[in-house]
Structure to design on (394 residues):
């Protein structure tokens, strides 16, 4: 890592930057954020249906691009986001060649603590009732204090990765008690079977999956005041930078990133302007591989219209932006090299075109705003989420 700057970060955006290779022997921790490698599941005995890890275009296994441990504040669940992609160039730009899976496993310690709180609250309320019968309610107002208490936020697992998420979840209201949430789960059960439970595919056998070497990601707040010396290999950016030079750049003053409303205020003046924004922002930390901000502002690679986030397949809630993969992922993971090797092994299958592997400008991840958990609290769950992939223009 480069020496830390003294400037305070001026956004709530977090960045993941490369932080060294993970040996296969060490790559067993679900509570980290990494690129590549095999997926490490929250529960080794519970893996998702195999079609969650297969390309819907060619039917082959996809490669894990990113695994990120991101528990949400006030949630009783451990939470990991897995992002996958097919490494066939011919599958790119087609629906189904990227996939996002969100996994939950209950944090037993946290759950117990919450349940104890619930019981204490109930007791207090009963006492309050009994007391108010005698017309002396004073002394029990303190019971209201518990609702805002977040002291149980620390996990017993020694979690790292995105555990430093700074923004409080807007989806889980402080006033909503665990009992209420569990109550909702019961209601959910009476509704039609959620898609997660409908899967008939056998669970994936992790060792069957192909994988890239894996790389730790270090999480750091974005500092848009920062200018860098471009310490890393920028060869893959060169064509982008050339494009940028050609673009009209006299109307951007710079330094106003945090306040810009990309979607709402952007006039359709062409993709160059959006692309320049993308590259200017990346220049603050060229090695960034992921950007993370729950319900935050996506950094689009090109102008886009409409809402691509959609609704959660499992509960119907709207999805919100959570994170995105940046082009530097493609210089860290040997996608082209692996695709070429595969082509040598199976020349007949990919004769129609040179397979140079996957490509993307950015992969925007949208997730269920409710962070829903279909099924029993104690089940480890896998819910498919949405990826909006933006590419270089042809
Ligand atoms: Zn494919
Ligand atoms: Zn949902």
């Amino acid at each position: 890592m480069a020496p830390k700057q003294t400037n305070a970060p001026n956004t709530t955006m977090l960045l993941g930057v490369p932080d060294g290779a993970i040996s296969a022997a060490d790559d067993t921790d679900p509570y980290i954020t990494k690129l590549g490698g095999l997926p490490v599941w929250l529960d080794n005995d519970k893996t998702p249906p195999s079609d969650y890890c297969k390309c819907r275009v060619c039917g082959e296994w996809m490669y894990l691009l990113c695994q990120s441990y991101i528990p949400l504040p006030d949630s009783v669940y451990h939470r990991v986001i897995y992002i996958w992609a097919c490494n066939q160039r011919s599958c790119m730009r087609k629906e189904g060649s990227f996939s996002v899976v969100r996994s939950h496993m209950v944090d037993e310690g946290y759950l117990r603590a919450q349940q104890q709180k619930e019981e204490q609250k109930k007791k207090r309320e009963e006492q309050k009732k009994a007391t108010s019968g005698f017309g002396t309610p004073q002394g029990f107002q303190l019971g209201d204090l518990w609702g805002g208490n977040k002291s149980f936020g620390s996990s017993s697992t020694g979690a790292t990765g995105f555990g430093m998420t700074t923004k409080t979840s807007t989806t889980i209201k402080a006033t909503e008690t665990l009992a209420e949430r569990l109550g909702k789960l019961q209601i959910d059960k009476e509704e039609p079977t959620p898609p997660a439970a409908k899967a008939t595919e056998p669970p994936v056998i992790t060792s069957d999956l192909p994988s890239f070497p894996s790389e730790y990601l270090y999480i750091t707040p974005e500092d848009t005041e920062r200018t860098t010396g471009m310490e890393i290999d920028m060869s893959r950016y060169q064509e982008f930078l050339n494009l940028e030079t050609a673009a009209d750049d006299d109307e951007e003053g710079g330094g106003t990133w945090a306040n810009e409303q990309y979607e709402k205020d952007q006039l359709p003046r062409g993709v160059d302007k959006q692309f320049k924004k993308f590259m200017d922002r990346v220049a603050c930390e060229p090695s960034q591989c992921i950007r993370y901000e729950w319900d935050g502002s996506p950094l689009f690679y090109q102008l886009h219209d409409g809402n691509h986030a959609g609704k959660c397949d499992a509960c119907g809630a709207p999805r919100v932006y959570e994170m995105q993969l940046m082009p530097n992922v493609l210089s860290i993971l040997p996608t082209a090299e692996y695709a070429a090797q595969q082509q040598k092994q199976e020349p007949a299958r990919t004769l129609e075109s040179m397979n140079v592997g996957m490509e993307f400008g950015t992969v925007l991840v949208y997730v269920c705003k409710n962070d829903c958990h279909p099924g029993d609290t104690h089940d480890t769950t896998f819910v498919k989420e949405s990826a909006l992939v933006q590419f270089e223009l042809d």
About this structure: Residues 108-132 form the longest helix (25 residues). The chain has two domains: 14-107+155-390, 113-148. Residues 14-107+155-390 form one domain.
